[in-house]
């Protein structure tokens, strides 16, 4: 009896020892397996989370960005065709017998050079027009200033700057410094000189006592007939006076040129001033006419050049 219990007790003790010896071994093998499983689960969760996030972003983008419509596609196609047409060279029109007379000209290889030449002509004509206008203005100023009795040196200098041919101004230079009496002044002075001319015309070359007395009386007393019946020197002097009153200085000088020499000698100082006045008036008038003619020609040329290609 005692032996059986001992045997059984020994058997029980060995079994328990074996059971407790296997426990740590199982735990040692189970722990790595659990760790690997947990790592795989964590990796799978991370991959699932990233994919879910990407799908969510795509869904949001698809929600806010509408799909291209057929209208957008048509616009893109037309834009591409238009760009292709722009890149192609322009077609050269071919004239047919039926439309050769009325077909428009689409290109002119000489158009650029023609336009450049036209611009050059316009600029040259514009310069000529400005110069002609300045010359006309200076000439008109000279003519106005020279009509009076005052010097006209500055006006003469202005005209000289604007003229290419200054030969016309040569007769005026000696007279511009002091000036020339006006026609009004000459008309006022003429009666006194006419009386001297009348006296000189009636004087004789008789050197006798009676001749000298007669000449002295003629110098003291001068009677001019104004009733229209005057003849000879008196008639000529009256005609010259009438021309002066009408403003015809050239006509008056023409009449006085027919007086007898003694009468002309008596009128010499007045005649010299009157001839200078006529020279100034004639020359300044000619300068003005020439300047206005150039201005008109320059204006005509500029207008025609501007309207014709």
TrEMBL record:
TM segment ranges: 25-48
Membrane listed as a keyword: yes
Organism: Asticcacaulis aquaticus
Keywords: Membrane, Transmembrane, Transmembrane helix
Protein name as it appears in the record: Inner membrane protein
Membrane recorded as keyword: yes
